[in-house]
Amino acid sequence: MFSRYGLRFRMAVSYVVISTLATLVVEAAVAVFIAPQATSATSSTRTADVTTARAQAQATAGGAGRALSLVASTTRAGRPSLSDQELLTTVASLWSGQVGQSDHLFTNLDGAEAVTTPAGRVVLSSKPTVYPVSAALPLAAGVTATSGTDTAVGALFGWATSPITAAGAWPATGAHVIGRIYAQFTVSADTVSTRVVRGGSASGYLLAAALMLALLIPLGVVFGLLSTRRLITRIQRLAAVAAAMAGGDLRARVPVSGSDEVGVLETGFNHMVEQLDAAGRAERDAAGAEARLAERTRIARELHDSISQDLFSLSLLSGNLSRTLPDGTRFQKQADSMVRTVDHTMREMRAMLLELRPVALEQAGLVSALHALCRSYEVRLGVRISADLHDVHLDPAAEHAVLRVSQESLSNAARHSGAKAIELSLLRTEEHVDLMVRDDGRGFDPDQVGDHHGLGLTLMRERITELDGTIAIQSRAGQGTTVRIRIPGGRS
Fold first, then answer.
1. Which of 318, 341, 358 is the last residue of a domain?
2. Cis ω on the peptide bond leading into residue 218 (within 30° of 0)?
3. 30 within some domain
4. 162 - beta bridge partners?
5. In this structure, is residue 2 part of a structural domain?
6. What phi-psi label fits residue 193: left (phi over 0), alpha (psi between -120 and 50 degrees) or beta?
7. What are residue 23's phi and psi, to 5 degrees?
8. How far is residue 387 CA from its own chain's centroid?
9. Could you tell me which of 34, 91, 324, 370 has the fewest CB atoms within 10 Å of its CB?
């Protein structure tokens, strides 16, 4: 029925309903039990007074126990060499001016307090004549809080004890009981409650309960609204972020505002959003990589099926033309030049196709992929490649970078240097992985590289720099080129 008003309203109503039911139960108990006691014996009323005396003793002993425990711990921190007995005596002397001074609400109760050892021996007493120092109080013995009453004739009282704790002596061994607080409140012979019952004023209790019920409803509403405000705010904030996430905003996060159940929910929600965001990025990256791979494959296929076939036909035609024309003529020389140009172009095309052809790194592994790459260049381009490859341990990103740098270096050597032989080595040390590509081509000046060739070298440097590695290129005209790369890693 109240679901449409929201959680905050329902919780406030639940507070009011529960409190009202509790008050009605109390009123019923008063009507059933207090009214008949107006004509009952005085002893039953005194039993109720003894219960009040016990409650007063519990409050007094508990408060004093906590206070003296704090004083004891502070004293022990400043004087760690004191024994438990010395510490208890010191604390008792500090409290001597306060013993027996505790306020209580019932004028018909006569109170007495004492500080005892854990065994119940009195160390300090508010009434030395009744509880002399060193006297034994059996009720005060033990290490836990206790309480009780005595309704025997001439001994109408309630009592309670509370432990005094402190950290252990140096070195500290943890908090333990060093003494006890004993509090006793005796009921006077003619109590106020007895006179009230004898006067037949049970209706006063009922009137007071009705007044309390009238005040309880607005107070319960206010308390319910105030006590649930922070919880409702946290839940609303969580719902808003969830709605934003459902709308596609995976950057939204909910502030973690506590370590309770809602805080655990907020932390778990943020973790879930981060996982979804990471999964989305990984899926987008995978889709992009797959799209790039598909595009590279398509371009390679188109180049092979169209331009490569046309170049092959042109090569045949130019060769036949060169052989048909008379030797030494100007046209025969131009035909020979055409043959060489077509052969060079076909070599460039084959190298480009090898660059575009994807290498199955994930399935084959780095060393196998490098061997396959070397065989492809030997078969397709006729370049002799000697490979000295050792197994290394690298993460997938580093393996991909090493493969691409090797492919770029082999392509440069085959396409631009005119190399006939290439050396490729991959070695592992304790801290690094070393890659070396050396060719016997025409070489070049690394400081004077054109835009086309310089882009490849720049991409190689960027790949290695991202892995915190180094790259060195040594080349000189007519003496070939050597590319040396070192990246961190390589441990088995």
1. 358
2. no
3. no
4. 181
5. no
6. alpha
7. -65, -40
8. 48
9. 324
Closest among 483, 472, 479, 476 to 448, alpha carbons compared: 476
Rounded to an integer, what distance in angstroms lies between the CA atom of residue 418 and that of residue 492?
38
CA distance 464 to 398: 9
Rounded distance between C-alpha atoms, residue 91 and residue 170, angstroms: 18
* Same domain, residue pair 64 and 186: yes
CA distance 434 to 429: 8
* φ, ψ at 123 (rounded to 5°): -105, -35
* Cα 208 to Cα 452: distance, rounded to the nearest angstrom: 98
- Alpha carbon distance 362, 243 (integer Å): 39
Ramachandran area for residue 46 (φ above 0: left; ψ -120 to 50: alpha; else beta): alpha
**Whether residue 261 sits in one domain with residue 403:** no
Residues 376 and 417 in one domain: yes
Tokens describing residue 490: 């390589």
CATH number for the domain spanning 111: value is 3.30.450
Q: How far apart are CA 449 and CA 458, in angstroms?
A: 11
Residue 370 placed within a domain:
yes
- Is beta strand 421-428 parallel, antiparallel or unpaired with respect to 432-439? antiparallel
> From CA 180, how far away is CA 119, in angstroms rounded?
9
| pLDDT tens across the length of the chain (492 residues) | 444 555 556 666 666 677 777 667 666 665 666 555 544 545 556 677 788 888 888 888 888 888 888 888 888 888 888 888 888 888 888 877 777 666 656 667 778 888 898 888 888 888 888 888 888 887 777 778 888 888 766 678 888 898 988 876 555 556 788 898 988 888 876 554 444 444 445 566 667 667 776 777 777 677 766 767 777 787 788 788 888 877 777 777 888 877 777 778 888 888 888 888 888 877 887 777 677 666 766 676 666 556 666 666 676 677 777 777 777 777 777 877 887 787 777 666 666 665 655 555 555 678 888 888 888 778 777 788 898 988 888 887 788 788 888 888 887 887 777 788 899 999 988 788 999 999 988 888 777 665 445 567 787 888 888 888 898 888 888 788 999 999 987 554
